[in-house]
Amino acid sequence: TAPLAKDPPGLLVQMFFLGAGFMLVETKAVVHMALLFGGTWIVNSVVIFAVLLMILAANLFVAVAQPVRLAPFYAALLLSLIVSALVPMDTFLGMERTAQIAAASLLAFTPIFFAGVVFAVSFTRAAEPDRAFGFNIAGAMFGGLAEYSSMLLGFQYLLFVAVGLYIVSTTGHQKAVIGAPAAHIGHDAAG
Known about the structure:
By secondary structure, the chain is mostly helical. Helix content is 76%, strand content 0%. The chain has helices at 9-37, 41-65, 71-86, 97-124, 129-146, 150-153, 158-179, 182-185. The radius of gyration is 17 Å and the shape is globular.
């Protein structure tokens, strides 16, 4: 019998740091919206619904578009995180309510869409999806611990920690691309 396919270690590193970064982005979205619209259960419910909606949109995008290269999505993810970290919360104060909701939502949830695309494409390439998902969950737990860095940096700059985690994730992706046969991961080494 043929040996079972194994994921390259780079993919597991990528999945771990995708989970860690996502936890920080989600936490920032919850805090961002709670500060703007109040810390009520309705606001939290809407934020969680919006996060799930963005994940669904990312999965539908991947199913329809079937992206091969992740570099443009990593670039968009990192850019959207940096913009989100640099735009101060008071920018949204005094805006007309509809514009305030639209602008704040765009800023908070755009990174979640791009992270979802990167995750979905990477997960479909996993030879051992159970291990890949386990590493992603472990990364999310690490991200939960990394949230405490907000006490030192503040929630506005927590996204820079997420940027660092996603950059480490890109190195895992590059190692997975270089270390695995192209047929296994579904694309060329340009990633």
